[in-house]
């Protein structure tokens, strides 16, 4: 998988990192932009790399990402799971910030309590 990581604050204010998908999934390069203050944040880097892998796995990823909130939520859950794993975060108290992010940043039309339940069931090992 080809990817390029850049460090810049030229991102929407609510994001610490962002993955820009290539126009041609099979031969294109994912461009990951991370805020400089998160340069050493391996969890965030891995979160964005998950999005690159998602794009490689599914030729229609870009289209589905644009039109399906359910698909985007599934993708974010996969990415946050990897991020939490890298942080060693295995409890709900440690992962509540993910519920806040799912509720506030992504326009998923879910409540905070629904987001918290998603984190409990999908991201925290049982």
For this entry, give a set of tags.
126 residues, 3 strands, 5 helices, 3-stranded mixed β-sheet
How do the strands and helices of this protein lay out in sequence?
Elements: E1 3-7, E2 17-20, E3 30-34, H1 42-57, H2 61-67, H3 69-87, H4 92-104, H5 112-123
Parallel strand pairs: 1-3
Antiparallel strand pairs: 2-3
How would you describe what is shown here?
The chain is mainly α and 126 residues long. It has one domain (3-123). It contains 5 helices and 3 strands. It has helices at 42-57, 61-67, 69-87, 92-104, 112-123; strands at 3-7, 17-20, 30-34. The chain has a 3-stranded mixed β-sheet with strand order 1-3-2, with helices on one face. Helix 3 crosses helix 5. It starts with a strand and ends with a helix.
DSSP summary, beta strand count:
3
Secondary-structure element string: EEEHHHHH
Measured between the Cα atoms of the first and last residue, the distance is 32 Å
Overall radius of gyration: 14 Å
Q: What is the tally of helical segments?
A: 5
Question: Strands across the major sheet, in which order?
Answer: 1-3-2
Query: What value does the average pLDDT take?
Result: 91
Q: Flag low-confidence runs.
A: none
* Beta-strand content bin: 5-15%
Question: Can you tell me the number of structural domains?
Answer: 1
Molecular shape: globular
């Amino acid at each position: 998988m080809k990817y390029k990581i850049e460090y810049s604050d030229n991102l929407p204010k609510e994001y610490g990192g962002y993955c820009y998908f290539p126009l041609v999934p099979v031969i294109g390069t994912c461009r990951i932009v991370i805020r400089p203050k998160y340069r050493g944040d391996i969890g965030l880097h891995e979160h964005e790399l998950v999005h690159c892998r998602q794009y490689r796995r599914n030729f229609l990823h870009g289209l589905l990402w644009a039109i399906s909130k359910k698909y985007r939520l599934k993708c974010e859950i996969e990415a946050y799971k990897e991020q939490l794993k890298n942080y060693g975060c295995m409890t709900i108290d440690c992962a509540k910030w993910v519920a806040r992010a799912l509720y506030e940043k992504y326009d998923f039309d879910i409540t905070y309590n629904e987001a918290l339940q998603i984190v409990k069931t999908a991201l925290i090992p049982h």
